[in-house]
Specification:
By secondary structure, this protein is α+β, with helices and mostly antiparallel strands. It is 53% helix and 13% strand. It is built from six helices and two strands, in the order αααβαβαα. A two-stranded parallel sheet has the order 1-2. The longest helix has 12 residues. The radius of gyration is 15 Å and the shape is globular. The N and C termini lie far apart (33 Å).
Amino acid sequence: AYRDYFTRMFKGDIQRYMNEAVLTKRELGRIKQQVVLLYGAQDRPVPFAEAALPLANAIPQAELVRFANCGHTPSLDQPEKFLAAARSLFG
């Protein structure tokens, strides 16, 4: 069912959606708010070392939380850790 959902959501030129989601290093560097990235260490589609680390380094106020034994969806792979992190952030 998820495949059908994504097919409908990203109908047409998928690369267009990807291009529109990209922020330049300069744009990321202008973010002044605190940002917390919750990331799976074993994320295969968007690898931790290649994506999360550079992203966290590009955002001045970023904190990076690495979930061990976790893939692309921390909320599903490690729900208790994800909820604990969210509760600590949002109270």
